Structure formats: C-alpha cells, structure tokens
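Hey L., structure's done. Input below.
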Amino acid sequence: MTQFPQEFLDEVHEAWTAPFSGWDFSWLEGKYEEAVIPWDYMAMAREKMKGVQSVLDMDTGGGERFSTLAPFPPYTCATETYEPNIPIARARLEPLGVQVFAPVDDAHQPFADDSFDLVLNRHGSYDVNELRRILKPGGRLLTQQVGGQNEMGLNELLQDEVFFEYAYWTLDYAVNQLKQAGFKIVQARDSLAEARFYTIGAVVYYLRIVAWQVEGFDPSHFMQRLYLMQQIIERDGWLQTNEHRFLIEAQK
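Output:
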C-alpha cells in the first residue's frame, strides 16, 4: 500500500471539506488560473442590456455575477434550480429589483409567452423551444457555454477509459439546435485555451464542485492518481488543462 506524504493528504482533505456556497469559486484564487478567452461575456451582457425593458438571467447561481450588472431594466428576473443557491440569490438580487424564480426544469419556465427582450445564460442549461416561447419577437439570447472538451485533461489522468457525459456539447451542436428551433444566429464563437492548476487541492476542489466532470469522483478512490498529478505539479509548477468555452448570440 502506497504511503502518501501527510502534507499531500492534508491538502486533499482541506479541499474536499472547504466551505462552498452559491456559485462562488473564490477559494480557488491563487490556486487555479482560468483560461484567457477572446471575448468578455459580462461586458457583452452589459452592452446588450442597454435600452431593453425586460431581461432574464438563467441559472444565476447565487447571483454573484448577475448582480454586478445593476442597475437593471424595469422587469428583471433570474432563475436558479439548485435549491441551496435559491435563498442566496434572492438575498443578493431581490434588493436590486430582481425577481428570483425556481423552475421545475428547463422545459417549464414560469413566465408568459413573449416576456423578455433579452435572455442571458452563462454556463447554464436551457431548452431551445422554451427560450423561443419566452423571448419577445426580435428578442435575443446571449449565452456562454462550457463546451464538451472542458478540462478533459483531468479525465485523461483519472479515468482508465476517458468518459465525459457532455462530450457532445459543442458550438456546432448548440448552433444547429437553435437554428432548428427557428432562431437566427447573430454570432457564434469557440475557444479552447490553456488553464492551470497550481495545487492538488485546487484539482480536488474543482472536481468536488463540478461533480459531473469525473462521475463518482471521491478522492479516497483516486489517491494514487491524484498523487501522480501532485508530482506533475511539483515538477512543472502547475498542471496544464484546457477550458472549452463557446459563445452564441441568437435572435428570435
């Protein structure tokens, strides 16, 4: 049986038990370096909000990012389906005039037909037909998605047979889906850029929160491979992976 250094075990334990709420990844500051992608989603969202009367932010998490876009149009809503995030989002967003809803699922949004001039969706799921229903004629969707090749370097190091449930989720797939629902594609952009993990704790924390990346991840079942990743970090100074992002602006 392999004996792992206590410092390594302590770091894994700390990351596996560190507090997490909303969709706040601040624990990773200094431990993980995000990829540089060739667009600024938040700046684009702020620009698209100018002059509109109604906006929806889908899968807002705890409202951490959306709240920075205030002041908001007269009718502004947000949705969140992850139950622990809902009170956090309401506490953050409702004082800013945002109504926060908790839909049953993507296909049943609690809004009337033709409700919104703009729907924002950063890293959230959606149903294309429901998007079309709740957008006003001429209304727009702006979405940044996490693509199916995201952080696959982690899967390659941890899995005997590399498997990721959402590998199909690409720019082409999403564009075709929107076109088939009757949307006009205004712009579509793709990015696969280098990201870096500087500590093994960052790897464990990421896989704990993004639980769908490596299905069934529990560090106690992956200690040997995590230690090999730790050795890569010690040798190179970081563990290199890639973040896959794509951006679509579509019009009803």
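The helical segments are 6-17, 41-49, 85-93, 128-134, 152-158, 171-180, 200-209, 223-236. Residues 6-251 form a domain with the Rossmann fold fold (CATH 3.40.50.150).

-- N.
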